[in-house]
Amino acid sequence: MSDHSNAPVAPVEAYEPPYYAAVFTAVRTPAQSGYSETNERMEELVKDIPGYLGMDSAQTPGGLGISVAYFRDADALTQWRTNTEHRAAQERGRAEWYESYTLHVARVERSHGFTRGEVPKSPKTG
Amino acid sequence: MSDHSNAPVAPVEAYEPPYYAAVFTAVRTPAQSGYSETNERMEELVKDIPGYLGMDSAQTPGGLGISVAYFRDADALTQWRTNTEHRAAQERGRAEWYESYTLHVARVERSHGFTRGEVPKSPKTG
């Protein structure tokens, strides 16, 4: 396990367009057995996808959760979508963990970032 | 003020592509005077933009906040981006409320939704 839990939180930065974003918004059920472990495993697994750029997640307690994963191209996204272990997790999510969700897959056309006290910089090419 | 605070939370549903998503991820400063009021005002104001489809927001306490606003087309997004009152709010955000943020503007190419106990349905044309 890495010791990054106290690292300062920062959003995934702006990459040079085009790139892809998978926006997953969900409301969870009360049945959350196994959810955290699977979620952590998925967060590790996705890092192995060539072209994966990063992920932002936020969860309002008792409310909506949003995760946005960024990928360099559509191929990277397809690899992630069809990953066997990820598919099993999706299936279990529908069976147990999610009351409702929406997935929006989108091509980023424009982006920019802001960091307090920093001069604006060019998007990351990564 | 509307009395919707106890309405069940549900993510914005899948619309028929293409449509646009503006993904705003942010970490806030400790200086939050005026933030809530402005945020509520923006959530009302955006509803007047023709082509506005909805917004999802989530905030991890002490962590990242994510808001995703959906629009039917690029024109609607431009109207929102250049709205005078919205621009003033953005300016104040950079001056006071945000430690860092990233904005990703993306064209949704594919989407689907899931609701527990419902038969999958076609995307909303709205």
Automatic annotation (TrEMBL), chains A, B:
A Pfam family annotated for this UniProt entry: ABM
Domain ABM: 31-92
This protein's UniProt keywords: Monooxygenase, Oxidoreductase
InterPro entries, alphabetized: ABM_dom, Dimeric_a/b-barrel, Jasmonate_Hydroxylase-like
Signal sequence, start to end: none
One Gene Ontology term of the molecular function aspect: monooxygenase activity
Name listed for the protein in its UniProt record: Antibiotic biosynthesis monooxygenase
Organism expressing this protein natively: Streptomyces cinnabarinus
Lineage of producing organism: Bacteria, Bacillati, Actinomycetota, Actinomycetes, Kitasatosporales
